[in-house]
Amino acid sequence: MAQEPLDGMSGSNPPSFIPSGAPRRRPSAPKPAAGAQPIPQTFEPKGAPARRSSARTPQESFGTQPPSFSPASAGQSAARTTAGRHHTTIGEPRSESLRTASVPSSGMGGHRPASFSQHAFGASGPSPRPSRSGRRGAIAVSPKRIRHRLLAVLAAIVAVLILLTFSLVSWVNGQLTHKNMLTSMADTPASTWLILGSDQRDGTAGTGSSKDIPGSRTDSILVLTKPKTGHSSLISIPRDSFVNINGQDMKINAVASQIGYKALTSQVESITGMKIDHVVQVGFGGVEKVVDAIDGVELCYDRTVNDVLSGLNWKAGCHQADGATALAFSRMRYSDPTGDIGRAKRQRQVLAAVAKKATSPQVLLNPAKTKKLAEAGLSTLTVDEKTGAFDIAQMALAFKAASGSSGVTGTLYYTDIDYRPASGIGSCILLDGTRNTTLFQQLQSGTHDPGTVGGL
């Protein structure tokens, strides 16, 4: 039994029901009967409601649309537009010519079948692609990419800093003067520096009064200790401390000039019970240059002094001292009622003030001032055969910690400040060996409380 054709369709399937790949045919219009008005062709399927009037709106001429002819929503159209590709449905040939063909919209209510691409309705060129200023341009840079860029910048900065550091280290090592001053004593737990202040009395600028005898003496002897844990310490050894080397009586400040620096280092190790890791000798003439390089330091002394031998003219209180004043402040002892003990205390004060200001941001962040300080300091240093730039930097940090509020400072313990041996070497300071041994055991283990130590 023949299937009854849909009304107005002349037995032809709607275009959307044409099998995929089959050629599309234009439906042939039925021939009107003689004398009859031709019936306009519509897409109204069989079973559509009766026509109400001859004047129909475009929507009414369609009747009930099959699902395949439902108009695309605005959202669907936008989605297909941004996808950047043509949408092909079943029954639509993949021919570019059909996709680009213009389809009139009359009689379709302004809607297009869903099976047709957006380009099929009046577009004359290729399907538009999303602009870079549109959806793609609005995408922010991913956090992962930002992290990669930051890491690249940090890596470049680190590389530059490493290069500058190695250049600086190489330059510092080239400025140092080395001398054999270490012994073969076994290592002990703490890091230690023996700091020697040499007063070269040859009449040159910054080396003392011309009334002083020619030659040199180790007028300042300090032991800087940095334990693995605990408080750093800076302890002075009085220059007139009595020692006996191979049966010969002498003051400790004459050991280096008469026997040698290794002998002096050995005596300090005997007193402290610790291995000396580094020896740094500072000429007093360099103190003046260093202090001037950092534009002076603040010093305090509670006595008014006018000392001819050292050249110190001081009014009781705290004052900003230039290099010449700081040098005289470090050398004066005859106008001090405590003699060499008082001088050692003032020397520690000068060195602590220099270390504090030299490591301050106002100096370290000023390249010109830093360079001036380095040149002034390094020109007056003599170090042992193993000490380098890193050891000097560690010494400066340990010195600052020891001279601060959490450090341990002072002098050795002694039993007699005016000891006169029979050898006739004059007035000496007789050290308290037992108490000093206990002191340095605590200092190298970091168990000693902060504060001032030593004395009678």
UniProtKB/TrEMBL annotation:
It comes from Bifidobacterium simiarum. The keyword Phosphoprotein does not apply. It comes from the Bacteria. Gene3D superfamilies: LCP protein. Belongs to the LytR/CpsA/Psr (LCP) family. This is Transcriptional regulator. Keywords: Membrane, Transmembrane, Transmembrane helix. The chain crosses the membrane at residues 150-172. Residues 1-139 are annotated as: Disordered. Residues 55-76 have a biased composition (Polar residues). Residues 217-359 form the Cell envelope-related transcriptional attenuator domain.
